[in-house]
């Protein structure tokens, strides 16, 4: 769990937040990328249920960045270095950094590996990918999508 949480923290810092306004609000009533303020440091340190809920929120909402053309390329499996974000609205805008970086690839590979191992939070992270990119993968199963992305990524490395 600690390794997954560290990966998510790095993801949060490195990737910012890509809002998907078509999704319903979280059960806490916060907007998708504004959930963190609902958690106190004290509760996160001392309450396992709160930690689990925070990680689930982070996994789900940050996974919305991991869609084709935003956070990664579905055909190559490679992550993008980043994307411009309007910090007022949360909407993406140019420029797309259409290249990959080892710092982003390592996080992406870690999350893919955790998903393939069946980690529920990693699978939750790839839920948006499986839903939004279903036509590119022929499935909405986050586990199968993670396997396919990993396969495409490895093929890209070998080219």
What is the fold's blueprint, element by element?
Blueprint: H1 2-15, H2 41-46, H3 48-62, E1 82-85, E2 92-97, H4 102-116, H5 120-125, H6 127-132, H7 134-137, H8 142-158
Antiparallel strand pairs: 1-2
Describe the structure.
About 17% of the residues have low confidence. The protein has one domain. Helices cover 52% and strands 6% of the residues. With 159 residues, the protein is mainly α. It contains eight helices and two strands, in the order H-H-H-E-E-H-H-H-H-H.
Shape: globular
Helix share, percent: 40-55%
Low-confidence stretches: 5-31
Main β-sheet description: 2 strands, antiparallel
Count of the domains: 1
Number of beta-strand segments = 2
How many DSSP H or I helices? 8
Taking all Cα atoms into account, the compactness measure Rg is 15 Å
Strand content: 5-15%
Structural class determined from secondary elements: mainly alpha
Average pLDDT figure = 78
Lateral arrangement of strands in the main beta sheet? 1-2
Distance between the termini: 34 Å
Reading the helices and strands in chain order gives HHHEEHHHHH
Name the features.
two-stranded antiparallel sheet, 2 strands, 8 helices, mainly alpha, 159 residues, single chain
């Amino acid at each position: 769990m600690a390794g997954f949480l560290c990966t998510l923290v790095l993801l949060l810092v490195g990737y910012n937040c890509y809002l998907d306004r078509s999704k319903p609000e979280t059960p806490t009533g916060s907007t998708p990328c504004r959930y963190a303020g609902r958690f106190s440091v004290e509760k996160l340190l001392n309450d396992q249920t709160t930690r689990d809920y925070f990680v689930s929120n982070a996994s789900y909402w940050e996974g919305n960045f991991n869609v084709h053309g935003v956070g990664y390329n579905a055909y190559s499996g490679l992550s993008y270095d980043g994307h411009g974000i309007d910090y007022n609205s949360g909407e993406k805008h140019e420029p797309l950094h259409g290249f990959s970086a080892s710092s982003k690839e390592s996080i992406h590979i870690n999350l893919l590996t955790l998903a393939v191992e069946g980690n529920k939070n990693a699978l939750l992270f790839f839920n948006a990918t499986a839903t939004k990119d279903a036509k590119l993968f022929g499935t909405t199963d986050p586990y199968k999508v993670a396997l396919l992305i990993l396969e495409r990524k490895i093929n890209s490395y070998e080219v």
